[in-house]
Specification:
- With about 325 residues, the chain is α/β, with parallel strands linked by helices.
- Helices cover about 25% and strands about 25% of the residues.
- The protein contains eight helices and 20 strands.
- Strands 1, 2, 5, 6, 7, 8, 19 and 20 form an eight-stranded mixed beta sheet that branches. The protein has a five-stranded parallel beta sheet with strand order 10-17-11-12-13. A three-stranded antiparallel beta sheet has the order 14-15-16, with no helix packed on it.
- β1, α1 and β2 form a beta-alpha-beta unit.
- α4 runs parallel beside α5.
- The longest helix has 21 residues.
- The two termini are about 15 Å apart.
- The chain binds NADP nicotinamide-adenine-dinucleotide phosphate.
- NADP nicotinamide-adenine-dinucleotide phosphate binds next to α4.
């Protein structure tokens, strides 16, 4: 088993920023990147709102640069997924992946959240070419176009209103005949001349062209009225889906305190309820979900971890490959399992 000072779980902007900061503090962090380096940003076509890139930057390019930057300062990126953790027996903590197991004096959890999918034909295939889960990220690309928004909560209505800055019209398709969103937001949406509603309805299919000269690729959606069963085809160029997010916190269940929706709870220093475990980015941020906010939170989490480790410098056990006896000595309770 490999003993580390810091293990960072997740490789989105929060994780790679935490890796940069802990790397520059000579802590030689390990980043367990998951199956895709960069997480959700890696599937974002263009990032137009990250400071320092006035021409915009593609999600994959931004992630690559962040990873290179962290590696330059000693971060080691492992393409593997965490399958199990033991945070209950205190530091050093156990982090198990498909391929290996780590003992870590501290852990920074940045494993993110995932936008809920509708699971309909044409949705997944058009991510980045017309299907989107983020108005702030992608709205700009739909200037002068008719678009569709799915959902009736605060996110859907707030984003639909935001998207009217760019789109010619926004059709909000909601599965019921009343919105879940707060009254004030609702009223703003009802007053907005660019917004119309398709009630009691669900998207059945997203239709796109395979003409390589056309961008975005979506041309229409098939909508079903859930009360009458009637189906219609509505011309549209973009489909924005806001039906909630799910934090990727299943692996920490019962170990890190979370709210009812599963988001890990942190204080203002990004500390979780377990001393030595920090969290940053969308795993603990239900509200903003921006690259820039995740970078800030990753910085805070790293600085808190650095400070926490530095206060315990004399007590920390050696690093490197540990024998079974050494592992048992570091964590007698856990090692007897
Ligand atoms: P949400 O409140 O859970 O709303 C999700 C919406 O998507 C609901 O209208 C729901 O329909 C619909 N939906 C869920 N699954 C669906 C499916 N499979 N097919 C079609 N529609 C589906 O999620 P959210 O809007 O992302 O908000 C999350 C939290 O953040 C909430 O607490 C919200 O108040 C908060 N938030 C606040 C603000 C703000 O205050 N400005 C802004 C954004 C978010 P039903 O209504 O029929 O269930």
């Amino acid at each position: 088993m490999q003993k580390e000072r810091v293990v960072i779980i997740g490789s989105g902007p929060a994780g790679l920023t935490a890796a940069l900061y802990t790397g520059r503090a000579m802590l030689n962090p390990v980043v367990i990147a998951g199956s895709q380096l960069g997480g959700q940003v890696a599937i974002t076509a263009d990032v137009d709102n990250y400071p320092g890139f006035p021409e915009g930057v593609t999600g994959p390019e931004l992630v690559q640069k962040m990873a290179e930057h962290a590696e330059k300062f000693g971060a080691r990126i492992v393409m593997d997924e965490v399958t199990e953790v033991d945070f209950l027996h205190g530091s050093p903590f156990r982090v198990k992946t498909y391929e290996q197991e780590f003992l870590a004096d501290s852990v920074i959890v940045t494993i993110g959240a995932r936008a809920r999918r509708l699971g309909i034909p044409g949705e997944e295939e058009n991510i980045g070419t017309g299907t989107s889960y983020c108005g702030t990220c992608d709205g700009f690309f739909f200037r002068g176009m008719d678009i569709t928004v799915v959902g009736g909560g605060d996110s859907a209505i707030e984003e639909a209103i935001f998207l009217t800055k760019f789109a010619t019209s926004v059709n909000i398709v909601h599965r019921r005949d009343e919105l879940r969103a707060g009254k004030q937001l609702q009223e703003r949406a009802f007053r907005n001349p660019k917004i119309r509603f398709t009630w009691d309805s669900a998207l059945e299919e997203i239709i796109a062209t395979d003409d390589p000269t056309v961008s975005p690729k979506i041309t229409a959606v098939r909508i079903k009225n859930l009360k009458t069963g009637a189906e219609t085809t509505d011309a549209t160029r973009g489909v924005f889906i806001f039906i909630g997010h799910d934090p990727n916190s299943e692996v920490f269940k019962g170990q890190l305190a979370s709210n009812d929706s599963g988001y890990v709870l942190t204080d203002e220093l990004m500390r979780t309820n377990v001393e030595g475990i920090f969290a940053a980015g969308e795993i603990q941020d239900e509200v903003w979900r921006q690259v820039a906010t995740s970078v800030g939170q990753g910085t805070s989490a790293a600085m808190s971890a650095i400070q926490w480790l530095s206060a315990r410098e004399g007590d920390l056990q050696p690093l490197g490959e540990l024998s079974a006896e050494e592992v048992a000595a570091t964590q007698p309770q856990a090692s007897t399992n």
